[in-house]
Write a structure and sequence with these properties.
With 263 residues, the protein is mainly alpha-helical. The protein has ten helices and five strands, in the order αβββααββααααααα. α5 packs across α8. The longest helix has 40 residues. The chain is elongated.
């Protein structure tokens, strides 16, 4: 082996972090200049100093010092566990962001000081997002999904059917009784929205200045979020407006849960 290779091996051994073992539990054994790794975590300079001091205190014949050493070691263990948990959370977030990016989701990073660096999936379904954040009860979420089924059945943009290749073929759209079923759901949704508007103070009817006031914020929120799957951030960038939309949606979902027999 050449002298250059030998020199490199000596340098690698000198720079490698030293794992703490059972034989290290004695005063004066650890070299203050060596890096310490405890439970897979490399200690910084202050933590390493406290670790050595705790080891020495635990080996003391003085009971008070031994107790203080154990307490110091416990605090250090808690500190290391918190650091490891932080690393695991960061890795989980990075994995989630990577998977959602592959699915085509839009990832946003908060620029608010108190939430700096926080990731958010902005393009995810609004109803699902609120349920994941525990802003909705299971009954409210189920009512939103039931409304979405009816909304997609009645929405003309969702109901477009391309013309058949064989124009002479007689088509029964949606199967037998489809027209009667659609009429039944249309009347149900109309009655549901009327029920919601009776509870919504923002509902102005024909006297409303905006489209939202003419339908009421609760019905509008129900259509946009439960019906179309829009996200709160897509509807407004204002936190206060998002809060009012969320409150209006919850009012509408409570009414929907009663109407659908879910409560």
């Amino acid at each position: 082996m050449t002298s250059a290779r030998q020199r490199k091996k000596r340098q690698a051994r000198a720079s490698a972090p030293r794992m703490i073992g059972a034989n290290d539990n004695g005063p004066g054994i650890a070299n203050d200049n060596e890096a310490l790794v405890v439970s897979g975590t490399r200690l910084n300079e202050g933590q390493a100093r406290r670790f050595r001091q705790a080891i020495q205190a635990e080996a003391s014949p003085d009971l008070r010092l031994r107790r203080e050493g154990r307490e110091a070691m416990l605090r250090l263990e808690q500190e290391i566990a918190a650091a490891q948990q932080s690393i695991r959370v960061a890795n989980d977030i990075a994995e989630t962001v990577g998977l959602e990016s592959l699915r085509g989701s839009e990832i946003e990073t908060s620029d608010r000081k108190e939430h700096e660096g926080r990731k958010r999936i902005a393009s995810r379904d609004g109803l699902e997002t609120l349920m994941t954040a525990r802003s909705l009860s299971p009954g409210q979420y189920a009512a939103g999904l039931r409304f979405r089924t009816d909304y997609e059945l009645l929405d003309p943009e969702k109901g477009l059917t391309p013309p058949a290749i064989d124009q002479s073929r007689n088509i029964t759209r949606g199967g037998e009784g489809w027209a009667a079923k659609r009429t039944e759901r249309e009347l149900f949704v109309r009655d549901l929205e009327k029920l919601i508007q009776d509870e919504d103070r923002t509902f102005k009817g024909p006297n409303g200045r905006t489209a939202v006031e003419r339908t009421g914020r609760a019905v509008w929120a129900l259509r946009e979020i439960a019906g179309k799957g829009s996200n709160l951030r897509a509807l407004s960038n204002s936190g206060s407006v998002q809060a009012s939309i969320s409150a209006a949606l919850i009012l509408a979902l409570d009414c929907a849960a009663v109407a659908y027999g879910l409560e």
